[in-house]
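User: I'm putting together notes for a lab meeting next week and I want to include a structural view of one of the chains we've been expressing. I don't have a solved structure, so I'd like a prediction I can at least talk through. The sequence is below, exactly as it appears in our construct file.
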Amino acid sequence: MKNKHYNMSTQADDVYEYDGASSKKSKRKGDGNTSKPGKILGKRIVTQQESCLFCFENPQRPKHLVVAIANFAYLMLPQFTPVAPGHCCIVTLQHELATRMVDDNVWEEIRNFKKCLIMMFAKQGKEVIFLETVLWLSTPSLLD
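Assistant: Thanks for the context. Below is the predicted structure for the 144-residue chain, given as structure tokens.
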């Protein structure tokens, strides 16, 4: 059943051009707080990058699944069983907990990937569902 409210191929720009959202970085708790020593922060970042299969710097990341690379994000095929035909992942190059915490330029690239996917699938007569997997959001951020 198609959504009669939107024609996906022509309104992808309209759906993802909303600039009225509040700044994502400015809402972080403890902005400008430098109470944690840089040494501990550096160790935590390196450990996360080594264990995260999506971090671009991780040498264990499956490089053969990458479809497109931009300045701040990349598009890849899933590493495990896809949820549905056409399943792909839009991933930030830097390790981030959630898209609500990324800079505006990173968010812009994610939106551009989404628009391109919407238009590509619309040409095939298909619609797209976007979802985000966020783990450990209740733990303190690395930059808090």
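A couple of points you could mention at the meeting. The CA atoms of residues 10 and 75 lie 22 Å apart. The longest strand covers residues 66-69.

User: Perfect, that's what I needed.
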